[in-house]
Amino acid sequence: MTVSGKLITRNYGNFRGVDFSNRKDEVNVYRSPDALNMWKNYKNTSGKCVETRPDIELLAEYSDTIFGLFFYDYGGTTHKIVHSGTNLYDDDTVIYSNMNEEKSMYFIYENKLYIKDGINYLVYNGTTITDVVGYIPTTSISRSPLGGGTIYEDVNILSPYRYNTFVGDGESTSYYLDAQELDSTYTPEVTDTEGNTYTVTSFDYTLGVVTLSTAPGVPLTDGQDNVKIKFKRTIPGEADKILKSTLLEVFDNRVFFSGNPDYPNYIWHSSLDDPTYCSDLDYYTEGVDDSNIKAIVSGNNALWVLKEPSQSNTTIFYHNPVIDSTYGKIYPSVHSSISTGCVSSGINFNDTICFLSDRGLEAITGDVTTEQTLMHRSSLIDNRLLNEPDYEKAFFVEWEGYLVTIIGNKMYLADSKMYSQVNDHSEYEWFYFEFKQEIVGAIVKNGILYLSTKETINDVEKNRIYTLTNKEETREVESYWTTIDDEFGYPQYQKTTNKKGCVVDIEGKQVTLYAKVDNKAYEKIDEYKIAKGYVVPRIKEKKWKALQLKFYSKKPFNLYSSTLEAYIGSYIKR
User: Fold this and answer.
1) Its pTM surpasses 0.90
2) Residue 567 within any structural domain of the chain
3) What is the pLDDT of residue 501?
4) SS percent in the chain: helix, strand, coil, step 5
5) Phi and psi for 13 in degrees, rounded to 5?
6) What is the DSSP letter of 499?
7) Contact 430, 417 (CB under 8 A)
8) 369 shares a domain with 316
9) pLDDT greater than 60 at residue 34
10) How far is CA 569 from CA 3, 483, 485, 518, 547, in A?
11) Residue 384 DSSP class
């Protein structure tokens, strides 16, 4: 069958995202093999086109590296809390000056802001910031002066203080505590239920015996505790289990902590509804090796613990709440059926647990109580993503329905509204942004994306916070979209464009169209100013094998579709 002279029409539209796989013969016409700073803005254009990303607008500048940015609503006002260098700012006011110069994390409980930075565990109520003061547990009750009684509450590793309560007998002045080797520098405090305070005449801190000047009386109700003793027993390094943790996650009304370099495969959790109380028994080890925990993520009614790759292939664990007859609610560690490790970070994205492995973005699917399955989600960008020099420093933020992976000055955006079939399974469609600044942190508040950055201007380091904005009068973003290197379905034939057969539906103040044939450089076709609707470029190219279009601008533009016609010629000469 002769095809010479046949007119072929290519329609480029319904754009879905990028494909950086370099599989020239497999890239679909609705994807771009090379696009920059273009995305689908479902809020403004309902995803009908690809358009230039928002520009950035300077919000604030700080003298030191920004390690954390949080927002705290208090008293009808939103407070911008910034961790820069060793300082913590509420808007422009320094409220704390001994921060660790490492990434910090936060959560809000009972309208108080809690902050962890790998050294400190702080609480801020909008007026005063302090170290978290640990709840003081009553470790024994119903004790006689000589001891005994009932174990009541666990030791709190966040507090060196404890209470014991006793039933006074009206005669004894010596009271035996439930612990020994106590702090010699702290004299126990003794009170009774009637508000009386007792003088301690001697204190054997080795044996844990307190001697009083007078004997407390007997209780008004027989057998009821009426004497309370507060004492102190500091265990070196105990509080550091929480203080040195660098990861936290709120799950099941408890705060879970991990990332302590001294305990790389441990997690701890607080008591129910009390972030100041961490029992010395409420911890779990994840696997038999000490490979590092990279992320803890809640989702699918479980807490997921994502560890780095290890020789034992025990890398992904999960915890479900279980009621134990002795200990109450516990969270036993269960090894999942997944052996692929996490190399940087994890996130719950639309109720799917996602993390970065050494192969790209992975998603955990399946019933948590049966068998979990790992699905790859980034085949379309892996060729570029995995070659990022700081890949293992990548972090996530969720914004406008996208899972945004941030590495250095790059953003890879996974579209939650668009899936594609790759190798017989569903994967995300992707877009790609670049910035001039290195992005060191990101957070979303009221739909606005805030970026913490580091940049050098005139040899001076600048640490700044930007917001993304669509203000048309100030937007200056270089962006482009290329079509596939198109052989029009006939790679063995030469083609010639129909010079009247190109139509582009585009909007923008200044958009330039380029065309490239075979391995030649791009050539400028035309420039369109104040374009709104269809334009008809004149593309005159002869005897080419493949042709590619590039739409470029330094001003915002929207690309809806493009149509290109070509005539089939003779066979390509070899």
Assistant:
1) yes
2) yes
3) 87
4) 0, 50, 45
5) -170, -175
6) T
7) no
8) yes
9) yes
10) 8, 22, 18, 15, 14
11) H
